[in-house]
């Protein structure tokens, strides 16, 4: 009897501890930032959020992240296809390398890109000759975003390709479809849910990226200053209200994406 | 379509999946490829379809060699084991696919799809997705999709394997009727002998990559040409010492010969049940099993144990009962030869020994 | 066609992943072996690496424990309603969507020296923001979903039948966990832990905001890389980056290993 009671106390304590941890660590800060953004009044919030530089930063981030996502959709779909469908020496090595951007500190990634694209590097000089600069300009931001979000699409498409019944493809051939027609009409629709959810995740990660971008973007307001760097700048200059306002904007956007992904995945499993 | 296959061989690595297979199929026939799993049936089917390359041998359609023709150009309909329906397309979309890639006109496609939907009894399900259909319906969609481009040959890989036993019977006769009506040459693969016997005009028994026998179900049953075919078709027991069975003494002339005895070769009953009592031996009932429409009786006859059926109309037997056993015939085989031997005592009205 | 695709993929991987790694290595040895060792043996480097290591260890231990417990509750608990479970489940992912800078900002806003909570802790002599505790909290926040997301699907997949079988055989909850549940999730936990270590090791934005990047005090390896780059001390930055990259590659190998073990089980 006493041991049972003891067991119940134990598990009750455990539960509360875990739930409390969860609340304090995750829910509290998020509620906190939304609360804080409105703490100094609606007009203050509105003026911070309508600050043209802030808007420009957010819009630039979205534009850069979109381009990076499109690049990743193309490159990621191709890589997933090659890694699953073809057997060639080095395939396993490449497959392990996919996760490298997840394992590598983003600041290190930023440094790598900085070195590779810098004015003294081969690429830097080449682009200089061709009349444009990459480093500290928008292309560098895109490259940094592509790098850190590289694994998402690949990792989302691979399982779908692996699961796909080879007979479905053969059925298309038997019905007279060419390889190209089979790819577009049978294989691609099978990969599409993975491409979409991978792209959404990549997009939201690209929106949030800081470490890799801060080192390679010029951080010129209105031109190469992305939202997270803008927020960082506001924090550094002690304008927390401004930082909070932009954060809330960016957060809401990211949450919407995340929930869309969850919804799509749930529907896919349900259907 | 008239099909001729000669000297067909296929290897997967070291494994010889198909060994020197030859056959010919007349136009309009329904052929069952029957054999144990992993015996090479599906490989033969896939080579006919062009989904697997041919190592050696020739495949002729209407006398024309098609070995190097890609599957797209062979004009074959293929129904896959798990149907392989396109998950992201509706029933209509699936059926229309083969017509769309052949660039049929919109109206013609619409008409053809409607015709097939009607034919396969899928009316009302046109807009459904595969995951919203039952197993039997999916099978019919797969069938309709394969038929849509008007193929001259229909190949079906284990078409009923993924369907509940009850619906399977219905679908079998449905498929049989459908193929009869369309008059399309069809080949299906199965490991279920009942299915092959019930549906096919001609059965080809495939084992370990070889074609063991080809013929009508009745021929194969009556006249198995190899011990494998004999044991694969129907139920049977093997008796090692044939000459000890009453009426088969002559078999002693072939040492090392074994007998395969089917239940329907054996009759059991009270002495009064038999006209030729002298041809029967005394046995003892070991078990009786109720089989729904008959009794399955296991009898012990000396060292041998035989099974037979017994009508429900007859007197019920019990384990331990002493019964008379008559063996009408046995299928004898040794390493070199195989033949059917009738009970000699049954043939001779005046038996020598009493 | 096939060759073209393989070639293209190999090229992308080489350009995007391999060349940068090689370039970092070259950069670290720009001034020869001495430059490399000098960059690493500076007191601030040693201190930063030590900070990073401390954070990684503490964060991994705490999140491994709470992550596994929370996954168990979210999948198995009967004392949570279905709706609440779904809600909590979608909240778990939120840190993925939060920019690390914003994560850091949240902690500054809640626990900074000017806030009520921060002042309370300050009176007790504990500073959180611009000190180790804040950095740990920031990293905890960022890495929280990693283990939960690895473990939950497996728990869902294996179902509760085995656990029920164990309890009908008279096993206590404790025994059931260690002898039945744990063996089937252990490799996922290991995989999640490796991911957590990688992320904690590399966390930059959140830590930068929370720590204030005070040299020899709250500076971590990644924020030191940042500062060195800002100060045009590229060789030193490269040296630290090389050490971090080597750590990442090791983690990558561990990931592959954990993945292969996970598939076996």
UniProtKB/TrEMBL annotation, chain A:
Transmembrane regions listed in the UniProt entry: 12-34, 54-84, 96-118, 130-154, 210-232, 244-264
Among Pfam families, the record links this protein to: BPD_transp_1
The source's domain of life comes to Bacteria
The cellular location(s) given in this protein's UniProt record come to:
Cell membrane; Membrane
Recorded GO cellular component terms are:
plasma membrane
One MF term in the entry's GO annotations: ABC-type sulfate transporter activity
Q: Which PROSITE patterns does this entry report, sorted A to Z?
A: ABC_TM1
Where the record annotates domain ABC transmembrane type-1, the positions are: 58-259
Indicate whether Translocase appears among the record's keywords. no
Q: Which InterPro entries match?
A: CysT_permease, MetI-like, MetI-like_sf, ModB_ABC, Sulph_transpt2
| Keyword tags | Cell membrane, Membrane, Molybdenum, Sulfate transport, Transmembrane, Transmembrane helix, Transport
* SUPFAM superfamilies linked to this entry: MetI-like
Task: List the membrane topology term(s).
Answer: Multi-pass membrane protein
Q: Which family does it belong to?
A: Belongs to the binding-protein-dependent transport system permease family. CysTW subfamily.
Q: What does this protein do?
A: Part of the ABC transporter complex CysAWTP (TC 3.A.1.6.1) involved in sulfate/thiosulfate import. Probably responsible for the translocation of the substrate across the membrane. Part of the binding-protein-dependent transport system for molybdenum; probably responsible for the translocation of the substrate across the membrane.
This protein's assembly is summarised as: The complex is composed of two ATP-binding proteins (CysA), two transmembrane proteins (CysT and CysW) and a solute-binding protein (CysP).
Report what the protein is called: Molybdenum transport system permease
Q: Which organism is it from?
A: Cohnella endophytica
TrEMBL record, chain B:
Q: What PANTHER family is this protein classified in? A: SPERMIDINE/PUTRESCINE IMPORT ATP-BINDING PROTEIN POTA, SPERMIDINE_PUTRESCINE IMPORT ATP-BINDING PROTEIN POTA
Q: Which reaction does it catalyse?
A: a quaternary ammonium(out) + ATP + H2O = a quaternary ammonium(in) + ADP + phosphate + H(+)
Q: Does the keyword Coiled coil apply?
A: no
Q: Which SMART domains match?
A: AAA (SM00382)
Work out whether the entry's keyword set contains Translocase: yes
> What Gene Ontology terms describe where this protein resides (cellular component)?
ATP-binding cassette (ABC) transporter complex
Q: What is the native source organism of this protein? A: Cohnella endophytica
Q: In Gene Ontology terms, what is one molecular function of this protein? A: ABC-type quaternary ammonium compound transporting activity
What do we know about how this protein assembles, alone or with others?
The complex is composed of two ATP-binding proteins (OpuCA), two transmembrane proteins (OpuCB and OpuCD) and a solute-binding protein (OpuCC).
What is the protein's given name?
Carnitine transport ATP-binding protein OpuCA
Read off the NCBIfam families from this record. 3a0106s01
- Residue ranges of the ABC transporter domain? 3-233
Task: Cite the entry's keywords alphabetically.
Answer: ATP-binding, Nucleotide-binding, Sulfate transport, Translocase, Transport
EC numbers for this chain:
7.6.2.9
UniProtKB/TrEMBL annotation, chain C:
| UniProt GO cellular component terms | plasma membrane
Q: Which of UniProt's keywords are assigned here?
A: Membrane, Sulfate transport, Transmembrane, Transmembrane helix, Transport
Tell me where in or outside the cell this protein is found.
Answer: Membrane
Q: Which Pfam families match?
A: BPD_transp_1
Keyword Membrane assigned: yes
Which branch of life, at top level?
A: Bacteria
PROSITE patterns per the record? ABC_TM1
Q: Where are the transmembrane segments?
A: 51-75, 87-112, 124-148, 188-215, 235-255
Question: Ranges for the ABC transmembrane type-1 domain?
Answer: 49-253
Q: How does it sit in the membrane?
A: Multi-pass membrane protein
Q: Which PANTHER family does the UniProt entry name for this protein?
A: SULFATE TRANSPORT SYSTEM PERMEASE PROTEIN, SULFATE TRANSPORT SYSTEM PERMEASE PROTEIN CYSW
The protein's assembly and partners: The complex is composed of two ATP-binding proteins (CysA), two transmembrane proteins (CysT and CysW) and a solute-binding protein (CysP).
Q: What is this protein called?
A: Sulfate ABC transporter permease subunit
Organism equals Cohnella endophytica
Organism lineage reads as: Bacteria, Bacillati, Bacillota, Bacilli, Bacillales
């Amino acid at each position: 009897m006493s041991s049972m009671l003891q067991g119940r106390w134990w598990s009750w304590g455990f539960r509360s501890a875990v739930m409390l941890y969860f609340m304090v660590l995750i829910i509290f800060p998020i509620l906190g930032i939304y609360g804080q953004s409105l703490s100094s009044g609606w007009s203050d919030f509105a003026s911070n959020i309508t600050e043209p530089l802030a808007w420009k930063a957010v819009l630039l981030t979205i534009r850069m992240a979109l381009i990076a996502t499109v690049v990743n959709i193309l490159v990621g779909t191709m890589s997933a296809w090659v890694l699953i469908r073809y057997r060639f020496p080095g395939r396993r090595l490449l497959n392990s390398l996919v996760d490298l951007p997840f394992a590598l500190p983003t600041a290190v990634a930023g440094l790598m890109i900085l070195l590779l694209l810098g004015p003294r590097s081969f690429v830097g000089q080449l682009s200089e000759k061709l009349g444009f600069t990459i480093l500290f300009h928008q292309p560098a931001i895109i490259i940094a975003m592509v790098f850190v979000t590289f694994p998402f699409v690949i990792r989302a498409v691979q399982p779908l390709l692996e699961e796909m019944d080879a007979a479905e493809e053969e059925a298309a051939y038997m019905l007279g479809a060419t390889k190209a027609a089979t790819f577009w009409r049978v294989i691609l629709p099978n990969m599409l849910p993975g491409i979409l959810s991978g792209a959404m995740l990549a997009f939201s990660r690209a929106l949030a990226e800081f470490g890799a971008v801060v080192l390679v973007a010029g951080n010129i307001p209105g031109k190469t200053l992305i939202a997270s760097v803008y927020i960082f700048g506001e924090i550094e200059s002690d304008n927390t209200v401004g930082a909070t306002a932009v954060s809330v904007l960016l957060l809401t956007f990211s949450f919407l994406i995340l929930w869309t992904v969850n919804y799509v995945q749930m529907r896919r499993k349900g259907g | 379509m008239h099909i001729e296959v000669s000297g067909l061989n296929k290897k997967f690595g070291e494994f010889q999946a198909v060994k020197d297979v030859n056959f010919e199929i007349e136009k309009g026939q329904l052929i069952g490829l029957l054999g144990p799993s992993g015996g090479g049936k599906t490989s033969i089917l896939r080579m006919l379809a062009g989904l697997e390359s041919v190592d050696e041998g020739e495949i002729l359609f209407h006398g024309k060699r098609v070995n190097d023709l890609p599957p797209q150009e062979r004009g074959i309909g293929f129904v896959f084991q798990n149907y392989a329906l396109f998950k992201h397309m509706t029933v209509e979309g699936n059926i229309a696919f083969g017509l769309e890639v052949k660039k049929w006109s919109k109206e013609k496609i619409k008409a053809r799809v409607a015709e097939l939907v009607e034919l396969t009894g899928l009316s009302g399900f046109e807009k459904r997705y595969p995951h919203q259909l039952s197993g039997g319906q999916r099978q019919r969609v797969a069938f309709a999709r394969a038929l849509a481009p008007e193929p001259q040959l229909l190949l079906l890989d284990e078409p009923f394997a993924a369907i509940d036993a009850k619906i399977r019977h219905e679908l079998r006769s449905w498929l049989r009727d459908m193929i009869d009506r369309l008059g399309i040459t069809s080949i299906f693969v199965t490991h279920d002998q009942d299915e092959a016997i019930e549906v096919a005009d001609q059965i080809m028994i495939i084992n370990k990559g070889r074609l063991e026998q080809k013929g009508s179900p009745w021929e194969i049953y009556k006249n198995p040409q190899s011990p494998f075919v004999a044991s694969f078709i129907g139920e049977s027991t093997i008796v090692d010492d044939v000459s000890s069975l009453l009426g088969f003494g002559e078999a002693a002339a072939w040492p090392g010969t074994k007998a395969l005895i089917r239940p329907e070769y054996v009759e059991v009953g009270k002495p009064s049940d038999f006209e030729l009592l002298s041809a029967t031996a005394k046995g003892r009932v070991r078990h009786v099993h109720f089989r729904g429409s008959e009794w399955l009786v296991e009898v012990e006859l000396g060292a041998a144990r035989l099974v037979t059926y017994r009508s429900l109309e007859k007197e019920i037997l019990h384990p331990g009962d002493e019964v008379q056993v008559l063996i009408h015939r046995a299928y004898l085989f040794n390493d070199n030869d195989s033949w059917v031997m009738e009970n000699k005592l049954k043939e001779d009205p005046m038996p020598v020994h009493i | 066609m096939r060759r073209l695709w393989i070639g293209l993929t190999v090229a992308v991987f080489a350009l995007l992943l391999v060349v940068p790694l090689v370039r970092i290595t070259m950069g670290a040895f720009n001034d020869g072996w001495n430059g490399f060792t000098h960059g690493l043996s500076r007191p601030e480097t040693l201190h930063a690496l030590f900070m990073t290591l401390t954070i990684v260890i503490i964060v991994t231990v705490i999140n491994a424990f709470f992550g596994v417990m929370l996954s168990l509750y979210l999948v198995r608990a009967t004392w949570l309603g279905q709706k609440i479970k779904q809600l909590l489940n979608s909240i778990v992912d939120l840190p993925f969507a939060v920019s690390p800078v914003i994560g850091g900002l949240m902690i500054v806003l809640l626990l900074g020296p000017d806030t009520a909570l921060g002042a309370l802790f300050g009176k007790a002599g504990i500073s959180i923001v611009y000190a180790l505790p804040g950095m740990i909290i920031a990293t905890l926040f960022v890495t929280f979903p990693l283990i939960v997301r690895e473990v939950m699907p497996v728990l869902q997949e294996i179902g509760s039948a085995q656990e029920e079988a164990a309890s009908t055989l008279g096993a206590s909850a404790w025994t059931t966990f260690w002898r039945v549940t744990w063996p089937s999730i252990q490799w996922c936990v290991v995989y999640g832990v490796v991911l957590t270590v990688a992320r904690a090791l590399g966390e930059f934005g959140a830590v930068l905001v929370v720590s204030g990047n005070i040299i020899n005090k709250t500076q971590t390896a990644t924020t030191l890389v940042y500062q060195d780059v800002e100060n045009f001390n590229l060789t030193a930055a490269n040296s630290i980056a090389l050490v971090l990259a080597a750590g990442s590659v090791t983690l990558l190998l561990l990931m592959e290993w954990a993945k292969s073990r996970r598939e076996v089980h």
